[in-house]
Design brief:
single chain, 450 residues, alpha/beta, Enolase-like, domain 1, TIM Barrel, 2 domains, three-stranded antiparallel β-sheet, 17 helices, 17 strands, 38% helix, binds magnesium ion
Length: 450
Amino acid sequence: MNNQQPNRRALLKVLGFGTAISATGIGTAFASKSAADPTSHQVNGSPAPKITKVRSILTAPYGTNLVIVKVETDQDGLYGIGCATFTQRAHTVVSAIDEYINPFCQGKSVSNIEDIWQTAYQSSYWRNGPVLNNALSGLDQALWDIKGKMANMPVYELLGGKVRFAVDAYGHASGKSVEEVLDNIERFKDWGYKNIRIQLGGYGSTHLSKNPAYQEAGFGLASDNTINPIAYKNGTIEIFKKARERFGNDVELLHDMHERLQPMDAIDLLKRVEEYRPFFMEDPLSPENIGWFHQLRQQTSTPIAMGELFNSPHEWLNPMSERLFDFIRIHISQIGGITPAMKVARLGEWFNVRTAWHGPGDTSPVGHAANCHIDLAVWNFGVQEIIRFKEVAHEVFPGTPVIKDGFIHVNEAPGLGIDINESLAKKYPPVVYNYNWTQLRTNSGTPVRP
Ligand code: MG
């Protein structure tokens, strides 16, 4: 007992309560304060900062529309940023932030992240879809950024601290021919990557489908993409086979099927690549085809990554408890931010399902930083997708995570460790979204999910 007293006093001092408060008084001090006025929450002996404004910043420094949320407070110099990017509907998210999230948040304490998340989530009554969850993601990440700055700690410390020194990355080695794919794998290996995603001819090997019948008949647009499922299946098996022949087991190989095959074709492909030991095969089927995963799991041990298109954190409950997937592909800037992503990550721990957060070019560097802070702190982390950021990304977003020898390192500054240079961001106005990528058809012109 005697040993505990000085330690507790020291703790109170660190927390800023001073030595005048008795060691036994801390609990009651908080209890009576909050009972009298639940909004007068104090941090380090001072009233918690309040939100004065939430606003969007829309910028396209490397040709992709990125939506950033900035949360400003009544404390000089204290603000946070988060990623709300939904590049295909960027202006709609901007409206959700500026016209709805901003007035909703003004005057609220920055401290109560869970409370703000839950109340903002239900404030529209109709909830839990893309756009609104993107806006919520940006707000949530910005509040975690602020909390880290207030605690003078990186966000990963607030999530429990590191369970690994850095984040295992995977990069994209694509090519229009098998040889080009293999040469790109070599490049990534030279850069130090241990995990490499391989794609022949983009998603679904669309370059292999020339002069489709629908275009010759004047149906659809010349810019539409066409998939030949058999060419895609055979091409994918070929790159796995050739990659294993050339690189042995020296590297982990990943692939994104992008939900483009019919269920039996998808199962067939997963069975045939099994012998080449993929680290995972991603999105073998669309979310609309979730029922097929039961049949799929009974026929192959190829690991499955799934879920970048899930909009709601609740969509994870059944697939997790039924052990339908091996990797969680949540897009954190889409599903509601760090708060719900942490809940799904913890759920995954109980079912031995690992995280592999979505990390494409249309997640901003701020979103990538948020991904990596969670990666550092959760035990059931698997791997992190990342792009090779152009120099302009580091200029507009100082503190952008860096990749070294196949590992991602976050900036260790308090919060998310990343900022935005707003005057520079203004020099890269939004671009007109190109719908080409999502327009995919069969030979006769039937639309295929992208
Ligand atoms: Mg994907």
